[in-house]
Amino acid sequence: MTIKEQIDSDFLTAYKAHDTLRVSVLRMIKSSIKNAEISKKEELSDSDVISVLKKEIKQRIDSIEAYKKADRTDSAEQEEKEMEMISVYLPKQLSKEEIRKIAEETIGLTNASGMQDMGKVIGMIMQKHGDNVNGELVSSIVKEFLSK
User: Fold this and answer.
1) Is the predicted pLDDT of residue 137 greater than 90, yes or no?
2) What fold, for 3-87?
3) Buried residues in 42-68 as b, exposed as e (16+ CB within 10 A)
4) What is the CATH number that goes with domain 96-146?
């Protein structure tokens, strides 16, 4: 079953159970996927759906930060709940320690010696582990290693 099919199935289940929050979040996800399909003019692969979901998570993270700065904890908590519901459909993310290990190995493989090699290292990591890592975290870890 594809991620999109799983989302559709979970939407129907939540709808029948009258779970309004889950229905709302899943409807939003379905809408985002549909919009991406319209702009791409073809059905999305699981990898493309994951990209859409990651974008939705990023939007929630940005909103949470803004709500916390504005001292609106109720809205921030709502965004966190939505983010948790979206995260269910993403592959398991690698931990910071696992990413650090992968970054060290990749830097060794590419013989990267400075910041000028950052793009090459990040590109290799993202190509191999893209769905399982946070790009911003990879970037910060690689930058940390290469700036030494």
Assistant:
1) no
2) Hypothetical Protein Yqey; Chain: A; domain1 (1.10.1510)
3) eebeeebbbebbbebbeebeebbeebe
4) 1.10.10.410
